[in-house]
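Incident review: delayed structure delivery

Summary: a single-chain prediction request sat in the queue longer than the usual turnaround. Root cause was a stuck worker, restarted by the on-call engineer. No data loss occurred. The affected request and its eventual output are reproduced below so the record is complete for anyone auditing the incident later.

Affected input:
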Amino acid sequence: MTTQVQPDALPRDPLPAGGLDPADLLDAVEQAVVATDAQGRITFWNRHAERLYGWSAAEVLGRDVLDVTPGEFARGQAEEIMDRLRHGLRWSGEFPVRRRDGSTFPARVTDTPVMDESGALVGIVGVSVDVTEREELKDERDEALAETDAERLRLRSIFQHAPALIAVLRGPRHVVEFANPAYRRLAGGRELAGLPIREALPELEGQGLFELLDRVYAGGRPVTGTEKPVLFGPGGGGGLEEAVFDFVYQPLFDSAGTVDGVLVHAVEVTGQVRARRQAEAATAEAEAARRAAESANLAKSQFLANMSHEIRTPINAVIGYTDLLEMGLGGPVSEAQHAYLQRVRSSSRHLLGLVNEILDFAKIEAGQVEVDSDPVPLLPAVRSALSLVATQAAERGVRLEERVECLPGAAFCGDEDRVRQILANLLSNAVKFTEPGGEVVVTCGLEAHPVDAQARGEGPWVSVTVADSGIGIPAVKLGAIFDPFVQVESGYTRSSGGTGLGLTISRRLSRLMGGDLTVSSEEGRGSRFCLYLPLSRAPGESATTAFRPRQVPGLADVGYLLARCADTLTHRVGDRLRDDPAIPAGAELDRAQLEDHTSTFLVDIGLSLVTLDEGGGEPELMQDGNDIQKVISERHGAQRSRLGWDDDALRREFGILREEVEALVHRETGSRDLDEGGTADVAAALDVALTLLRQAERISLRGMRMHRAGLAIAQPEVS
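Output delivered after worker restart:
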């Protein structure tokens, strides 16, 4: 209720000359001031009251104040207030009041009685204040307090359920104020709250942890530790058990900025450390096994080379004496004997071919094969190889078609005899595994960027493709088709013979010439082999030096750096994958899923760079590493497909990997030189590493698409 006093009823002192009338003063007040007589009829209504209630003074003077400014109380309550005022008691309250337009606002109303000399009520002065803003602020404060309480409860719940160890220690004695359940579990369930840490966990004495707490409390700076071994004793007694932690001791400050406590946050990494140590031991064991295998492989190659020479001599003698017998130098030869001698010759020549393959393979393995790097006309070399298998194709009823007129005058840079050997092997295999009535087609072309090939140099490359309509290669054998002694058909019932070395030798010879040999196939629908050779830029000019890939000083430095920092890089990539908005599934995966294959892949790339640098740039020395990278990349793409990733997410992952590799190299090398070549060598070596990563990305995308299509990823066959 807002009641007013009659200004004329107020005792007035004489005004000083030039002074203001009290009514004028009340009119200037920034609060609604209303005066009434003893019956509640309005006698004064200042300008702020006009603005607040919406009534002008002329409209309300003489009217009952309850008709003009009704509040949320009944007439009976108003009479109780009036009775209080008649007894000279002030009344104050806060309640909604209605304006002229019907809207309401929260108001703080104070009614003050004005009494005459006899103590009778002559008027009332009411002051009303709009408290809407204060109510809004109160609501905001209450909401903020509620949010703070909810956040406090949420943080407490996080601390309670966090797998990490969390404790709050107060004062210079580090009294335990709070320790979450994980911390208490590691302490054997002991009650820690209220105890100095030295009393709560006495077994930590002498392990350096208490001294670190003292340092943080005294210096006000955090201390971090990684893989710190800590001995805990359950219940304070019994044998001590070791656990390994990454931890942070964070100082806590009071309102004056003084350190008054330490927050302990520790994550147990015992399992990871043990697993890494086991992996390191396994890696060392595998490295020892690899060296032993290389030594055994070298001994095998030397043995094969020696034995091949020893076997080839008597075979040539058998062929020579067979020819002498057929010529009749040993006496007349009957028709039946001629047939037998032809079979002896045929078998001897077949055996000699097998021995020659083994000898070639052994010499390649031992690094004893050299190839020419001369400009060679393409079409004569291809047609020469076609002529070698024309009879075989005709006898089997397989149509042999050449489509090689598209590159007249083109020449490749390589060894003509070796290229003829490669093409003859590819064509012979194609005819052998194509049913009568099928076809083998040879085409030529130019490629700026060969797909899935490891051709060296800047290109472009000549390509010679041999495609057949034969039985094809099963997916499980496709990845191992270039491995030594691998046969498309296996077992005692296979229809075709051979050592299983033809494709191995062909690929290694092609890489020795700076090219490559690739395959694509689908079981039951034929195979497609593609030979890439460097294009001769100046046909007719002789090149006497053997092909070697461009040497890049600093490759070994970058390679060792990648291998050494593979785990760190892997963790950084995993952290970024978890937080990257372009990979929404990353946050739902555990670290093992996010980092699958990455560390192994980086180590192998690093070792490949070392091999390329320290191995003198021989392409054949890169084969094992490249094959491993291809297998890892394809399986990585399939694994990402199983996790529901799409192509864009996989591309983003490799983009992050390249960024981290580039940042690592720049961070670790800075402006220092590598070898004698200067910082430009760093950029060149880094470019080689990034090229390998881009190649791995393409192979991973192919593995992802093969998995989505339900095709099996080729597995290397181990014999």
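Verification: The first strand starts at residue 32 and ends at 37.
Action items: add queue-age alerting; document worker restart procedure.
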